[in-house]
């Protein structure tokens, strides 16, 4: 009985902790837009940030190349951000400038980098001496540098150029991107009869291939009815398409879904 009471007490404490944590797991700072398309004709862009919370926020912004190295001095990127650190009052916003520093980048394809926003909430003096959990939240969105020669089109407009094929029974779908644009996907899944099999949809770099494998190492069926994928466009919106089987192991877009 004593053991059961002790176990119940542990579960109760854990539950209360999760409730307290769940109230603060979402950051207050937001970035306008879910991606930045940086045209090769421009030298800078304005990025708008906003404090949706009820307390002042100190924020830091920077750009990285997607590597796991957190030492900013070791990262060589073509953009600087100013101001790099700022304070935002509740309900207010702060515009920052994303400046291209002239670093040489490929002109025959897009390049991708990441815009980071780290928010650090102020210390509550009333609980400064007590045990507490402090969280710093980081938001990341992609920056797509688009050379001047590629500005007349986009990945959404070149979706028909993607080549799709079944990778084999249980192995998902292979996608080949012969274009100079990055393709970002929200989701993808295989339909076989009445069953749906979610796939792990990856971003596909220019002139490369990726295989969308089944989630949770599940096996997809040998035969399928269709494949559905959701492509993210320049504005953060989602365009949905359906693929149907063709000769051999091929797949082709049969319709765009609304």
Attribute tags:
1 helix, globular, 2 domains, Immunoglobulin-like, 8-stranded antiparallel sheet, mainly beta, 5-stranded mixed sheet, 8% helix, 258 residues
What does this structure look like?
There is one protein chain. The protein is mainly beta and 258 residues long. It folds into 2 domains: 29-123 and 130-149, Sandwich (Immunoglobulin-like); 155-253, Immunoglobulin-like (Sandwich), CATH 2.60.40.10. It is built from 1 helix and 17 strands. The strands form 3 sheets. An 8-stranded antiparallel sheet has the order 13-12-15-16-17-10-11-14, with no helix packed on it.
CATH homology-level superfamily of the largest domain: Immunoglobulins
Seen as an oligomer or otherwise, the chain set is single chain
How many separate domains make up the residues? 2
**Can you give the helix content as a percent range?**
under 10%
Q: How many strands in all?
A: 17
Shape: globular
The separation of the N and C termini measures 59 Å
Largest beta-sheet details: 8 strands, antiparallel
